[in-house]
Design a protein that fits this description.
Radius of gyration: 21 Å
Low-confidence stretches: 1-14
Bound molecules: uridine-diphosphate-N-acetylglucosamine, uridine-5'-diphosphate
Number of strands: 13
Strand content: 5-15%
Number of helices: 19
Distance between the termini: 33 Å
Mean pLDDT: 92
Shape: globular
Structural class: alpha/beta
């Protein structure tokens, strides 16, 4: 047996290991891109019979060019093998349509494992379709909890974790959360702290963003003399609990508008938020906010890195602020990414106008804090996920899915 080769692979003979990867929403394209690159790296070094075959399924949850295709182009993701065209809808309808269409793909492709990412409706639909066909599920970003079940994401991640065979956790906290629910390594579950695949992504792409992105110039910021342009705040806002409650939405926008009196506030608008602002006719009320279209990943990294601080309710953006050493104010009452708060780099500021303005006025003080090296791994989470799947390859091949 070649040195360092997973034993299972050599035993398995010529049958390739087929993985079906389910994506559908913006952050999943970024996460899947990291793992797909790791799979490609592995495949390049191995003969045909030992390769992993990844089939990419796009549910169609996100579909606007700036929420979807731009990421495939920029991150060099392969074209989806299946596009299910589900689109927007209520939770039940959207998840139900995905479930039906993913099932049909799985029945045809008969993969050894189904890989899902994060906590969206696409994640849950993928996991549910797979387990109902006795196909093991691998959940990337397992174990996160906000302990707020009013969030649709909390339901999605909770159920997905309990359905999964492989639980790839980004942090120790995530493995501890699972343990509390009785999910641990052994007895048919593979629970591993592998690190955060978004960290892999940011390490890889931030240098490219530095070189390629022209967003600062495009927005009219002067980039001639400084290495870090700190003359604006960057905001993202899309959580249903913030956007769909007009009181909370107005309150956040009021705070941003107030901050925008002295320093520009840039807000790349998620389509959900745009829709709600239009519904309540709020655009004209908040003239100090620089509303722009959603930006590509490279442009986002550039905007984040050069911001004075970031105000966000996004999961991924909280972490990116931490990794890029930009102070972060989270427009929520709780977070799954508790490590960023413990390190005091991220502050939960809620959605009240005064609190947001007060905390943001202390931005410079926050720049002094940065602790907790290596919380999110070492940038090799995707390689670890690939290796872990390979290690269990033989067992997975022995198992006959219940078609
Ligand atoms: C979804 C995820 C959320 C994740 C976010 C990432 C769920 C329950 N939520 O939220 O966890 O943080 O993606 O961005 O899965 N729309 C468009 N164009 C698009 C996509 C959406 O106009 O390309 C509009 C539609 O009006 C749609 C609304 O945005 O109804 C919400 O989209 P949806 O995919 O349901 O949820 P997100 O808010 O994007
Ligand atoms: N992002 C982006 N363009 C934007 C807003 C966000 O590329 O206009 C990226 C961001 O850098 C991060 C990811 O999208 O990598 C986060 O996705 P989002 O906030 O939509 O979802 P969440 O992480 O909250 O699930």
């Amino acid at each position: 047996m070649p040195q360092g080769e997973p034993r299972a692979l050599v035993l398995s003979g010529v049958e390739g290991m087929k993985i079906v990867t389910i994506v559908g929403a913006r952050p999943q394209f970024i996460k899947a891109a990291a793992v797909t690159r790791a799979v490609q790296r592995y495949n390049q070094k191995h003969p045909y019979q030992q390769r992993l075959q990844e089939i990419l399924v796009h549910t169609g949850q996100h579909y606007d060019y700036l929420m979807d295709k731009v990421f495939f182009e920029e991150l060099n993701l392969p074209r989806p093998d299946y596009h299910l065209g589900v689109g927007s809808g209520s939770h039940g309808r959207q998840t139900g349509m995905m479930l039906e269409r993913i099932e049909a793909v799985l029945q045809k492709e008969k993969p050894k494992v189904v890989m899902v990412y994060g906590d969206t409706n696409s994640t849950l639909a993928g996991a549910l379709a797979a387990v109902k066909l006795n196909i093991p599920v691998a959940h990337v970003e397992a174990g996160l909890r906000s302990y707020n079940q009013a969030m649709p994401e909390e339901i999605n991640r909770l159920l997905t974790d309990h359905l999964s065979t492989f639980l790839f956790c980004p942090t120790h906290q995530a493995t501890r959360n699972l343990l509390r629910e009785g999910i641990k390594d052994g007895k048919g579950k593979i629970v591993k702290k592998v690190g955060d695949v978004m960290y892999d992504s940011i390490l890889y792409y931030s240098k490219i963003a530095e070189r390629k992105s022209t967003i600062l110039k495009d927005l009219g910021f002067d980039t001639r003399h400084e290495t870090r342009v700190t003359s604006y705040y960057l905001t993202t806002l899309h959580r249903a609990e913030n956007t769909d409650d007009p009181w909370r939405l107005k309150s956040i926008l009021k705070a941003l508008n107030e901050i925008g009196r002295n320093t520009p506030v840039v807000l790349p608008l998620h389509p959900r938020t745009k829709k709600m602002i239009e519904t309540h006719h709020l655009f004209s009320e908040f003239k100090n906010i620089k509303f722009i279209k959603p930006v590509s990943y490279l442009n986002m990294l550039k905007l984040e890195k050069n911001a004075k601080a970031i105000l966000t309710d996004s999961g991924g953006v909280q972490k990116e602020a931490y990794w890029l050493k930009v102070p972060c104010f989270t427009l929520r009452d709780e977070t799954e990414w508790v490590e960023t708060v413990k390190s005091r780099w991220n502050v939960l500021v809620g959605t009240g106008v005064e609190r947001i303005i007060k905390e943001v006025s202390h931005t410079e003080r926050r720049r002094r804090y940065l602790k907790g090296k290596g919380i999110f791994g070492d940038g090799k989470a995707s390689d670890r996920i690939t290796q872990e799947l390979l290690k269990h390859f033989y067992k997975l091949c022995q198992k006959t899915p219940g078609f």
